[in-house]
Amino acid sequence: MTEKRITYQRTAPERGYTDRVLRVDLTRKEIKVEEVSAEMREMFVGGRGYCLKLVFDGTSGGTKYDSPENVLALAGGPFCGETGFVGTGKFIAGTISPLTGTFCDSNVGGHFFPLVKISGFDAIAITGKSDEDVMLVIDGDAGEVFFTEAPAMDGALIGAEELVEEWRGEGKQINVAYINAGNGAKNTFFGCINSVYYDTRRKRCRAKQAGRGGTGTVMRDKGLWGVLVRCNAKRAGSNRPADRERVRRAGKNLRDVIREVDPNSMSLGTQGTTALMDMMNAFHLLPVNNYQYGVDEREKAVSGFVFEKEYFKQKTPDGCYIGCNLACTKGHENHKLLTGPYKGKRVGVDGPEYESAAAMTNLGVFSIPWIMEFNWYCDQYGLDTISTGVTTAFAFEAFEQGYLVEEDTGGRKLEWGNAELVMELVHETAGGEEGFASVLARGLRRTKLWIADRASKRTGRPESGIINALNDFAMECKGLEFSMYITKESLAQQGGYGFALKGAQHDEAWLIAIDQLNRELPAFEKKAVALRWFPLFRTWFNIAGLCKLPWIDVRNPEAKNTPMPARNMPTVDYYIEFVNGTLGTEKTLEDLLLESERSYTLHKLINLRQGFGTREHDNIPLRAMAPVFMNEFLSRKEYYEEYLTERAGLDIAGRSDEEMLKMLHGDRRERYEKLTDAVYSEKGYDANGIPTDETMKRMGLDAPEYMQIVRAARKRSGNRN
Ligand code: SF4
209 with 267, same domain? Predict the structure, then answer.
C-alpha cells in the first residue's frame, strides 16, 4: 500500500490540554491536525463531551453505523495521563452504534490514550472507509502519523508482545500501546475495542476493553485494524497542571482513603470486580438463566474469594495505569484453552471482570475455567462479553419457551449450563459463520425479530403477538443488551437502565448498591433526585477521562457524617481539588455538574435527531421490573406476598398465584411510569422526554442547530410545548 504520512510539531499538554484533534479520513487516506476551538473546550470539556461534539458535527440524522461519514471518536480528558492522581488512564470511544442506531460510547483504561496525549492530541476523529485493512501509527517520538499495513494478527492478543517489540525502538522502554478490534468485531454488531499495553510486572501484554455499543464493529467496518502509538516523552508531570502541589495533595488524599478502606470492604485490589459475585448473589441480584433468578447456590464455585485464592495468584499491584493504587485489573497467568482455534495453548487471561463472569452465570455456567475461556476468546475476537452473553441467554430462554426449535438452531438443544455449546456459538458467531450464529451476531433486538418471524411462520400465530411475548424477557433497551444486574426489586436501577441515553448499561446510573444493598434511597422522591444527580456526576468522570471506581466503590470513612453518604462527598472534594489544581480554576461541584449536563443533553439531542430519544424508547422489559413467569414468582413467593401486602398495600386474600403475579405486573408497571414522570420533571424534560426550552437555554444549547432538533422531535411526538 502507499504510505500516507504527515509530520507535525509535538505540542506538550498545558494545564491538561494539547488543544489538538487528529483527523483521519480513511477513504482519502488523509491525516490532518486541527486546533480545538475555545468554544468546544469551554462547553464540552473532553472525553465523552468531545466525542459527542465530534460525532454531532460530523454526522446527520441519516447517518448509520456503516455510513462513511460516521465518526469513530476517541478522546481522553484534561486529566487523562496525570500520574499524580488515581484512575487517569481512561478514554472514551464514541460513535453511531450498529446496535442502537444512535450515539453510544464506552470507556476503557490502559496506556493508550495517555501516550496519545503526550504525543500531542486530545482526541482522534476517524471517518471514511479503507478498501484494505490498515493500521494507523502515531509516532510521538518522530512527530509523525502514518498508515501502514495491518499486522497479520486475527485478534487483539495473540502476537501482541511481538507487535509491541517491533515498534518499541532500539534500546527504548516499552512506551508503545495500541487499540484494535479482532476479526469477531468485523462479523458482529457488538465488536469491542481492545486497549492493549505491556505490563512490565507480568511481562506480557494486557488488554482492557471499550466493550459496549459496537465501537469495534465500526472500527473494522472502516477498514481500520487498529491504532498504535509510541512516545518516549517523560510521563510524570507531562500534564503540566497549573498547581502541581495541589494535584499531588489531592492524589495523596485519595490514595490514603483507598489504602485504608478497600482491603476491608470491596477488596477490589485482590479480587478485582469479581468481588461483586458474592455481594450480588447474597442480595438476589446475580443474573441466572437470562435474569430469571438472582441467586444460586452454585455461586460459591465462582466467588471472588475463589478467584483470589486459586487464580489471581500473582500478588503484584494491578493498576491499569500509573498512579492507581486501587489496582483492580486482576488476571490469571495460566489458562489452558479448552476449545477453538487455539485449543491446548496456555494463555494469560485479563480479568474476568464481574460483568464477564456474570454473563456466564446468566447462561447457567458456574465454572471458573469456562468463564476464563469465554472471557479470553471474547477479548481475542473483539466481542463485548455482555452483549455476547445476553443475546445467547435470550436465545436459550426462547428455546426453553418453545419459540425456537432445533430446526432453527442447526439441530442444537439450547440448554442452560452447557458451557461447550456456549463456546461453540461464540466461535461461530465471531467467525461469521452462516446459520444460527449469524443471527446472534446481530445482537438481541434483531435476534428477537428473527425468532418471531420463524415462530410465526411455523405456528401461524401473528408475528406482532409473538414479539410482544418475547419483549417481556428480551433484556435490551434502546437496542443495547442489559448489563449484569437483576433490577426487579430496585425501582431506582430500573430507571438507571431505562433512562440511560446509550441503552441498558449501568455506567450512567449504578444505583443498585445504594438502593437495594444499603437502602439509602427509600423515598420515591429520593430515587428521582438520584436519577438526575448520579448520571450527571458519573457522566462527569467520562468527560474528564477518569475512572469512577475510586469514587463509587471506595466509601470515604468521613462520608457517613454527611447528609447523603452515597454521594461520597469527602472524596468528591478531592476530585474538585484535582480539577482546580490542573486547570488553575476555582470551579465548584455545581460547575462540574453543569458541564456534565450539557454533554448529557447533547447526547439526548443526537438520540432525538436519529429518530429516538422520546418516552417510548425509555421502556424496559417486564423481566427488568418483575418476575415474568410463574417459576420466577414461586422461587420467591413469600417475598412477593409480603411485598404485595406491606409495600404495595394490596389485598391478596383468596388470590391465586396467577392473580398475584398479574397484580405484581400491574403494580410494577405503574411505579415505573410514575418514576418516569418524576425523573423527566427533575431533568427538565416534557412528558415525552424532550428537553424544554428552558432546559436548552440553561445548558447554553439554544442555538438554532440544537433547537431545530428539539422542535422537530416535539412535532413528531405531537407535543408543541
Ligand atoms: S480502579 Fe481499576 S479500572 Fe480504575 S484505574 Fe484503577 S486499575 Fe484501572
Answer: no
Domain containing 91 equals 5-230
Q: Inform me whether the pLDDT recorded for 258 exceeds 70.
A: yes
pLDDT the model gives residue 2: 45
Q: What is the CATH number of the domain that holds 75?
A: 3.60.9.10
Q: Which three cell numbers stand for residue 551?
A: 469514587
Distance CA 381, CA 337 (A): 14
Residue from 169, 415, 368, 196 nearest 272 by CA: 368
C-alpha cell at 215: 465501537
**Statement to judge: residues 619 and 554 lie in one domain:** yes
pLDDT of 419-450, one tens digit each? 999 999 999 999 999 999 999 999 999 999 99
- Pocket probe for ligand 1: among 328, 354, 541, the residue whose CB has the most ligand atoms within 8 Å is 328
Torsion of CA 648, 650, 656, 659, to 10 degrees: -70
Q: How far apart are CA 487 and CA 286, in angstroms?
A: 10
Question: Is any atom of ligand 1 closer than 6 Å to the C-beta of 327?
Answer: yes
Provide, rounded to the nearest whole percent, the portion of the chain with pLDDT above 70: 99
The per-residue pLDDT for range 157-214, each reduced to its tens digit, is 999 999 999 999 777 778 999 999 999 999 999 999 999 999 999 999 999 999 999 9
Ligand 1 centroid from CA 686, angstroms:
38
CA of 88 to the centre of ligand 1 (A): 8
* 328 C-alpha to ligand 1 centroid (Å): 5
What CATH number corresponds to the domain at position 278?
A: 1.10.569.10
Indicate which residue's Cα is closest to atom 8 of ligand 1: 320
What pTM was estimated for this model as a whole?
Answer: 0.97
Is residue 283 a part of any domain in this protein?
A: yes
pLDDT attached to residue 1: 47
Contact 435, 410 (CB under 8 A): yes
Whether residues 475 and 505 fall in one domain = no
Confirm or reject: Cβ of 324 under 6 Å from ligand 1. Answer: yes
Contact between 81 and 100 (Cβ < 8 Å):
no
- Is 242 within the bounds of a domain? no
Q: Is residue 169 part of a domain?
A: yes
Closest atom of ligand 1 relative to the 329 alpha carbon:
7
pLDDT digits (tens, 9 = 90+) for 512-523: 878 877 778 778
Q: Would you say 114 and 81 are in contact if contact means Cβ atoms under 8 Å apart? A: yes
Kindly report the average pLDDT of the chain as a whole number. 95
Q: By the 8 A CB rule, do 230 and 110 touch?
A: no
Residue with cell 515498534: 167
CA-only gyration radius of the chain, Å: 24
Which ligand 1 atom sits closest to the C-alpha of 550?
1
For residues 509-533, give the mean pLDDT: 82
Q: How many domains does one find in the chain?
A: 3
